[in-house]
Amino acid sequence: MTGRFITFEGIDGAGKSTHIEPTATALRTAGRTVVCTREPGGTELAERLRDMVLHAAMDGVSETLLVFAARRDHIGRVISPALARGEIVLCDRFTDATFAYQGYGRGQDLALLGRLEAEVQQGLQPDLTLWFDLDPQVAAERRAQARAADRFEAEDVAFFERVRHGYLARMSGAPERFVRIDASQGRDEVARRVAEALRERLDG
Ligand code: TMP
Questions:
Q1: Which atom of ligand 1 is nearest to the CA of 152?
Q2: C-alpha distances in Å from residue 154, one per residue of 13, 146, 178
Q3: CATH, domain range 4-38+88-203
Q4: Which of 21, 87, 101, 195 sits 20 to 30 Å CA-CA off 34?
Q5: Which of 57, 53, 56 lies closest to 66 in space, CA to CA?
Q6: Pocket test for ligand 1, best of 66, 73, 101 (most atoms within 8 A of CB)
Q7: Nearest Cα to Cα of residue 134 among 172, 75, 184
Q8: Is the pTM of this model over 0.70?
Q9: Measuring from atom 2 of ligand 1, which residue has the nearest CA?
């Protein structure tokens, strides 16, 4: 059985993380071995880098280099070995987030991001990316009720409009990889769409 790499994406407040554990449970019930992980993070080093990226003041270039450093460690230690064992990897964010946040949100050079992506991933791409798409204004209202903001969550609606545009651009560049999920719907309907996307895209 071949491994499958599935990523969950969307702006902060879109609700993607809520759907990862239930998805893992459903896949395990169906007999698959599942690894749940996240970016930045997923290894000891990458979690330390995550803490810096989320909380330490730095410019966009440093931010970009740190998320790719975290990604390199994560791919080498967790993602690639799990895929080689035939497991399913569910990852809360991956490189689409770097294009959306650092590229479109912060205005970092997209060509540089592309070079880092090629170098760090060596051809690795998700088999399926679920993009939880939500209006940035609605997401801001959800976030305000939820938690203390980190460096990204503290950004204004205009920033998240740009990030959303980044996801849209990434989807246009790889439509076969993406499924857009309307995250404005209720949790049960969103869960139904996630299950449907997995059935349609992962069978075989
Ligand atoms: P999370 O809150 O969904 O765990 O994501 C952490 C934050 O990190 C989120 O605001 C998006 C940001 N991020 C980037 O800016 N670039 C990246 O490459 C990744 C993976 C996350």
A1: 10
A2: 12, 13, 27
A3: 3.40.50.300
A4: 101
A5: 53
A6: 101
A7: 184
A8: yes
A9: 12
Q: Rounded to an integer, what is the distance from CA 92 to the centroid of its chain?
A: 5
Alpha-carbon distance 91 to 84, whole Å? 16
DSSP string, 9-60: E-STTS-GGGGHHHHHHHHHHTT--EEEEESS-SSHHHHHHHHHHHHS---H
User: Where along the chain do its domains lie?
Assistant: 4-38+88-203
Taking only the tens place, the pLDDT of each residue in 60-118 is 999 999 999 999 999 999 999 999 999 999 999 999 999 999 999 999 999 999 999 99
Which tokens sit at 4?
């499958």
In angstroms, rounded to a whole number, what is the distance separating the alpha carbons of residues 164 and 101? 9
The neighbour count for residue 173, using CB atoms within 10 Å, is: 11
pLDDT at 150: 94
Instruction: Count CB neighbours of 109 within 10 A.
Output: 13
